[in-house]
Amino acid sequence: MTKFALWFGVLAATALTGVSGLIDAALRHREAADALIRAGQRIERLPGDFGRWRLLKEEPLHASTAHELQCRGYVNRSYVHLDNGDRVNVAVVVGPAGPTAVHTPEICYSAREYELADPPEKRRLRAPGAGEHEFRRVGFRSRQLPSATLSVYYAWSDGRGWQAPEAPRLMLTHLPKLYKIQVAAYADQGATPDPCEAFLRDFLPILDSRMQEP
What we know:
By secondary structure, the protein is an alpha+beta fold. It has helices at 3-44, 63-69, 97-102, 105-108, 168-171, 195-211, and strands spanning 53-58, 73-81, 87-95, 114-127, 131-142, 149-157, 178-186. The chain is globular, with a radius of gyration of 22 Å.
């Protein structure tokens, strides 16, 4: 074999290896994109009414929010409890981990007509059939109605339980996909149970079951 033929063989093998690597990377990217699409479809098939909660309204996310989150699927709903009249708003989104992890209520509510009333604190929450989860709870006061306190619970999930780390940008952005849930309700200070917690105990088993579907 001539030196030219030998070098040609080496270059050809190197080129084939590079092409194979590019194909593998493209396939992994396509699989990740397809997985996000399927996750979004599962979220958008969440049932309306469940238990003693009745769907009041379903609205699209604001266009700028949907664009910022790059979400592949979401629900944005209002519910009322048939027995006590509690009303809650819930948003569930799924999308790339980066933009999904960094969007928190402290940012979006403080930019509106609210001011921080209660600093973020961790809450452990156990839901029947869905195990124990970690949420972050924060309170806001309306600048127009100072006596009204808005209680907001939020957390993220890769599909295996909900967590609310103090540094989501560092802890979660490596994941291939990320779910986020945010529940908000007006509540009296020290109300027991908090309407958000009551809603989450009923909602999480349904949501987690849907997230586990193939």
